[in-house]
Amino acid sequence: LLFPVSNLCGKCKPRDTNLLQPSLNFLYCSLHQTTPCSQQRAVAVLLSNVSLLELLQKVLECTWLRSPPSEPAYLSSEDALLCSGWLLVASLLLYQHRYNTEVHQTLSLDLTKVLNAVIFRKKKPILLLVSIMQFLRAVLRQNFSSSLLVIVGQNTAQGATQPQPSSLQDAALHPLASQQVFSLVVSLQNLLVHKDLLLSQAVVTCLETLVEYLYVKNQDVALHVASQPWHRFLLFTLLSGGQKPFLQPEVLRLMTLFLRYQSSNIISQKEISQVLQEAAEANLAELPEATSRALHLFLCQV
What we know:
By secondary structure, the protein is mainly alpha-helical. The protein contains 16 helices and two strands. Helix 6 packs across helix 7 and helix 14 (249-260) runs parallel beside helix 16. Mean pLDDT is 90; it is low at 155-163. This is MEI1 protein. It comes from Uria aalge (Common mure).
């Protein structure tokens, strides 16, 4: 089925939402819900389809052209298609890297526009933000070096052959700029305050990957980001209300992140003791899988 569905997608235009939406979702599910052996073949089939990749390029570019709906939570058919496109491309990046699959057509994206889609949200639906963050996480994990993706920045988009870093710090973080990093961190912090479960999971995952990327590139910047005083206020906001607030998966993962990068000004011995106390009183067998996994990582970090 991958052959006819992917060929069908390649013959469509980005406006054919009724046909493209289920088709891209089928391709996405085919990648994720199959055996590793079949998964490798599925990735090869999709990456060999040049018309499909050209269609995905056009779909992603529609993100910058969308007109914000009156309600930020409203998900139009066009936004739903964008979500499917970003999620599928993020998956293709992940599996192409895992299996070192041959690429027949590259995708080109302006990194500044991708970052600004998260930094300047402009009434974007939550699911679209989550989808873009999944893509951002994929490119961060691959150090912006995927053979499937060509990243262009503001300077290259204007015709320069090579971006000119404004400082040594920016040179170390290339293709990111330090100002983009700090703006993105503030935006992720603000998104966490919404306390939406799906959004919180995506934000924490993106923040973890971002700090890991920064730590490899420039440890001083990574430690500076991880020790921002605003994180402590954010932690208190997430802990307000609810039963056993310290056993929320996103709270545990945030605290693990702060512990990993030794942000003693964010998390103290008191918070660590409270986590241990709540864990001791909880029925561990009844904890949700996400909570169990987050608690395990927290305890290992401690």
